[in-house]
Amino acid sequence: MSGKERLSRGTAASLGTASRRGAIEIDRVSIIFGRGAKEFIAVDRVSASIAAGEFVCLLGPSGCGKSTVMNAVAGFEHPSEGRITLDGATVTGPGADRGMVFQQPTLFPWKTIRANVAHGPRMLGKSKAEAMEIADGLLEMVGLAAFADNHPHTLSGGMQQRTAIARALANTPSVLLMDEPFGALDAQTRSMMQESLLQIWADVKPTVIFVTHDIDEAIFLADRILVMSASPGRFISEIPVDLPRPRDAEMTLEPAFMEIKRRCAGLIRTETLKAFEQQSAALRARK
Ligand SMILES: Nc1ncnc2c1ncn2[C@@H]1O[C@H](COP(=O)(O)OP(=O)(O)OP(=O)(O)O)[C@@H](O)[C@H]1O
Predict the structure, then answer these.
(1) What is the model's pTM?
(2) What ipTM was assigned to the predicted interfaces of this complex?
(3) DSSP secondary structure string, 13-76?
């Protein structure tokens, strides 16, 4: 899909209701796995207020708890302490108000991509015709209208991931949760997907929480980056990304981008070294 392509007016209007919802409060949330001697604090008292329609990236070293925080917002994990609210209501489990996109597209291989995207609306009780109409609008938005009758295995990795994004948007979620969605793609496809995602976000305006290891990706996409410490995961810095929008790949060469990158890289390097030291200590303890 060209970054310049606009969402059709009808699709944008039907999805645009998301813009009034999606405010997230993460209030002193800790997530502890195991019990007794096996207790492990994965996430330690993290707090953040995320505005409706904001694009936030979680950036941190491997194993620091990024996915755990995201899974808690999704409702797959429950805080051991603290609370997460979405538009004032405590998150107690997964819901159609939060769409998820993972590193692997996890599409149903036996269904066409239209049927994959229509699946969520069908589960929510929409008629087949309504669900197919929603799917067709979203496939047009992600540039895959011509492939609606294809099965996932006939598409490239990038196309499958665009289908996964369309599927995540099919229930008009107010929040889009993305866990390293472009991590398995080659650099060129990844860059194009980032531009496509920003276009979709500008049109639909869900709140986005996007997990990544990649500093450039975080800066390119985000309004704000929450940097996490090595395990146990804490939010150690909040970096506003006040670069103008719309953004394109050229801006990654500009001094303002480089300045934010320098700041993030210093923090991530320190935390990654700590993570390595922790892993070495754990290995030594096992010997
Ligand atoms: N269900 C679980 N039970 C026990 N430990 C878990 C569970 N889920 C995650 N962990 C541990 O919690 C820590 C944080 O994991 P998490 O996957 O959130 O990290 P991450 O920052 O997303 O890592 P990566 O960037 O490598 O994907 C890790 O040490 C992980 O092994």
Answers:
(1) 0.90
(2) 0.97
(3) HHHGGGGG---EEEEEEEEEES-GGG-EEEEEEEEEEE-TT-EEEEE--TTSSHHHHHHHHHTS
